[in-house]
Amino acid sequence: MITDCRCSMTWRSLRRWLTPALLVLTIAPALGQARPAVFACEPEWAVLTRALLPEADLTVATTAWQDPHYIEARPSLIAALRDADLAVCSGASLEAGWLPSLLRKAANPDIRPGGPGLLLAAETVPLHQPHQHVDRSLGDVHPEGNPHIHLDPDAVPVIAGHLAQRLQQRFPGEAKVIQQRLLRWRVNWNLAREGWRQQAAALAGQAVVVQHGSFHYLLRWLGVDAALDLEPKPGLPPSTAHLHQLANDPALESALAILVARHQDRRPADWLADRQQLPVLVVPGTVTDEAGTDTLAALIGHIVEGLVEAMEATAGER
Amino acid sequence: MTDLRHFAGASALALFSSAFASPALLANELNPDIGVTLDGYYRSGEQALSHREEGFGLGHTELTLSSPIDDRFEGRLTAVLEDHAGDTELGLEEAYIQTTGLPWHLNLRAGRFLSQVGYLNGQHLHADDFVERPAAYRALLGSHYFDDGVRVNLLLPTPFYWRVGAEALAGDRLGDTDGDEDIGVYTLSTKLGGDLSASQSWQAGFAWLRNRLTDVASDGDAEHDHDHDHGHDHAGHSHGASYTGKNLYITDLVWKWAPQGNTRQSQLTLSGEYLYADDLNRYASSDDTQEGWYASAVYQFAPQWSTGVRYGEVDLKEAHGDHFHDQSLEETEVMLAWSHSHFSTLRLQYTHQSTDGFEADDNTVTVQYVMSFGAHGAHDY
Fold first, then answer.
1. Set of chain A residues whose Cβ sits within 8 Å of the Cβ of B378
2. Which residues contact A6 (CB under 8 A, 6 or more apart)?
3. DSSP secondary structure code for residue B127 in this structure
4. d(CA A237, CA B338)
5. Dihedral, CA of residue A272, residue A274, residue A280 and residue A282, to nearest 10
6. Of A228, A294, A298, whose CA–CA distance to A259 is shortest?
7. What is d(CA B49, CA B44) in angstroms, rounded to the nearest whole number?
8. What pTM did the predictor assign?
């Protein structure tokens, strides 16, 4: 009898703990659904999402300090992708080293290639430099084309349109406001673009030295030549032999500056700059949390301004 | 006819949607991803519990095919070619199907696959930082344990990463066993993980492997195969674990640090595992247990360079009929690796072993290359 009583006591106390615990387990995910959860592979897609759906619960997998090609498929990212309603990534193999592992482990029924919850920006716009013949002796090239599409003044509005459409599908209740915010975002973007165009008129025909194709689309839009690359092959770090070769390249004399992204090691650029009296322009490869580069428009403005300043400085010297 | 129209429609759509890609590229999209890993080495001496012989040799040569099967399944096949004493063996290491997008974040896998116990076991060998798996793995899991069976994984709805999983496996590949249980091995495992800051992340795991075949196994093996270690290396080459127990427990912990999370420039990885096996066979007393552990530190100090040190121990019981012989192995390894690209690695490794009950050289140096061409899958954490 006593034993029986003890048992029921234990059961009762256990139940007292178990019931709220079970409630939390069942309700927590349901509550989580209330706030749209968006997983952005890179910060550029996070700021676009924030412009269209500021109330979204955003997880950003990378920062401007990181090379988006090399990201660990970390446990925290798996957990975030599991809970997400929508994932926005660059695509075109930029995330080939980590996103497939995340997708597999998160096992989110909607977020998979071709699924309603995965938007790949590179699939919404034509890419430059697609390769019909690819082998790895060419370096780490993406057969689909250059995936660093996020600084192309003409492509970003197209991607924003696709993103708005996808957000509207996933969160129909917000469809109307998303549309309004998209229109407002477009007006601002077009205004900014006019500004870059005027600033950039003088830049056309100039040349810069780059490291990797991170700024390819923007430079092309500006009419700035970027034929000289510190990387011997795409994706390979600058080698001494290649730097020496660049130092002796006659084309280097006409270059405005060496443009590198913040996440890259700046020593190779500094080495070359010392030899040729070139300025080194270190800019974030994508948006940051800091004022002045916290939106795509601000970042493009920042890079264009940097290039214009470099040009004026060189013009003064020459 | 319908098929043909469907096909024409699909290819027209594909052409329309990516006007910049060539038709050849589009046709290739339907081929599975094919990847080959080449692994070759030169080793200056003989090592205990090793799958690699002295002198020049080939390690784990892999041919991998993988592809989505449809929108609900994906598949992977890995064939391994290994050379042992002049004989080339073709083995099937992975041949599985896996679900994508089941409800409740469930993940099902069936076929032959690497068991997810421990930290290293579920990873592919070519992703390792050292030439071989730690001694504890080589003794208790046959370097890497793969088998036929099914796996269920569930991601729990917690704010951090928490995965629980169970596997039911044939068990034939864990030790030289021939028990009559259809399901020889069960595993239960869990993994937890998260970020400590933008620069630091961690993962911890615990696994229990229940081996139902050990009772039958250990008598037959012992009497006539006194020189077990030697047999394992050469004539009786086996991929299974040489030492088993009814219960194998593994805990693992990994911590990674990269300044600002920029793993391209530099990264420090600390990892360690502890393995414990008990209930070795019907003659074993409760004192007869086997255990091993390792701790490893690998520092990638430049995009193309990494160096690391690993220390590991394993204490084993070699079954001889109704009694056991103690064996132990302590191993210190130091390595330097250069990866020209993401797909090519050259490695120089010095190994010091101090052994009890094994025949091996104290000091060995290994030079190894691991290179891959074709598709190269994403790496796990």
1. 73, 96-102
2. none
3. G
4. 13
5. 80
6. A228
7. 16
8. 0.86
